[in-house]
Structures are given as structure tokens and as C-alpha cells.
Amino acid sequence: GTIIRRSRIPLPPPHEDQFYTIDHFNINIEVIFYAQRYKIIDCDQFTKNFLLKMGVRLNPPAARPDDPYTTEWRKAMESTNPLRPYEHIDTLTQFLQYDGQVLRFFCVWDDPGSKTRDPRKLVLRYYLADDTIDIKEILPVNSGQDPVPRFLRRDKLPKYAPVGLYQPGTITRRTILNLTGKSIGKKEYILDNRKTGAVHQEFYKDSDLKIGAVINVWGRKVILCDCDEFTKQFYRTKYGI
Q1: Do 226 and 232 contact (CB within 8 A), yes or no?
Q2: What is the value of pTM for the model shown?
Q3: How many structural domains compose the chain?
């Protein structure tokens, strides 16, 4: 969010009776705002042109510091020992990149059990942060149908539903092997990198959704008819569609 709201910022002591002006700014310098030290590493082209017209000699851009999270993640991946495999499941990067971004499709479902035989209008929302989907039904006025909060609650949508029920603990992210057992008196566990006995499920991704596609929503064939402008721009940028 906003670290410092728009205002005049005083200079650090002993010149706290004066304020920062355009003359105090350049690339690759440090400034102090309210006892916090910041380093200016670069600026946009408009700012560069403005400073050059003011007669300011610009310093060369500075290097951006490494991201601590990416650095630690890279160290963890490089230190992985093949004899004791460690699988790093990284979901934080996707969440930080796409949090709050939602693809919205307008759909119809031809309900064979409907008395009116009219297609039911739906809105499908795909959450880019965790690849989950929820669907809401748009009911016309005096439709005679009972309103429900959600046609489909938010969750990952399997492609080949309906699927059978699994026992608790069957579907897990990792498979753990008991290496020694109780007979030796010491138990040691490792991760099974071959994922023996793991249940593989295929879920809908953003690459599977497009206008005109028919998706399987737990046995119901839903047709994607349209989408909003943000969704169109997303597919133009990521997939060139």
C-alpha cells in the first residue's frame, strides 16, 4: 500500500525546517524520509527527460537487491540431496503474482430436467491465485426457482467428474516412506520421489477455458459464451489469443 501519503517531506536534521524539492533527487542516491533510508535505483523515461531539461546530470542506474524469498528458495533447491529427495511445492509465488485477479466467463447450461426448457445462465469465476473455480447462477425475476448462494462452491474443478470418493489421507501432496521400521528401534522417513500409489487428478486450468468451449461441471455440460474485458486482456497477454 501507500507507505507515505502525498505531502511535503522535511529534510533530515539539522535541516528539518526545509523540505525536499526536485533538486534533491537523482538516480543511485539515498534519501531519508521520516528517519527511514531509501535508495533510488532508477526512474522512468518521463522523469529522466524532465531532470535532463532541468540541467541535472543523471547517475547510472543502480542494481536492484536480490529478493530474499527467491534467494532462499534457490538455495533450498540447490541443496537437495538425491539420496534423501525433498520436493519443494511453491504456491506463494503464484499467490503473490495473481492475488485478487479473477477471470470471469458468462456461461449457459441446458438443464434437461428444467420445466421451462430455457438454458440457465451462469457466471464462472476462475481465481488465478490458486486455480480454483466457483459458479453463480443468474436467476431472472419471477423465475419460480429457489435461489441458492452458489451453483458451484469455490474449489478446483476436476475434468473427469463425477469421480469416486477417496478415503481420508488418500490424496496428499507428498508420499512418505518408512525407511527402517520399528524392528531396529529407530524410525526414519523419506519422501518418495516416484510418488508410488499417488492419486493423479487432472483439474481445469486457465488454458482450458475459452469462448465456445464446453466444460464438464460434475456431469453437467456448461458452454462458455463470453467473458469480461479483463479476461480478454489476460488471454491476449499470456496466450496471444
Answers
A1: no
A2: 0.58
A3: 2
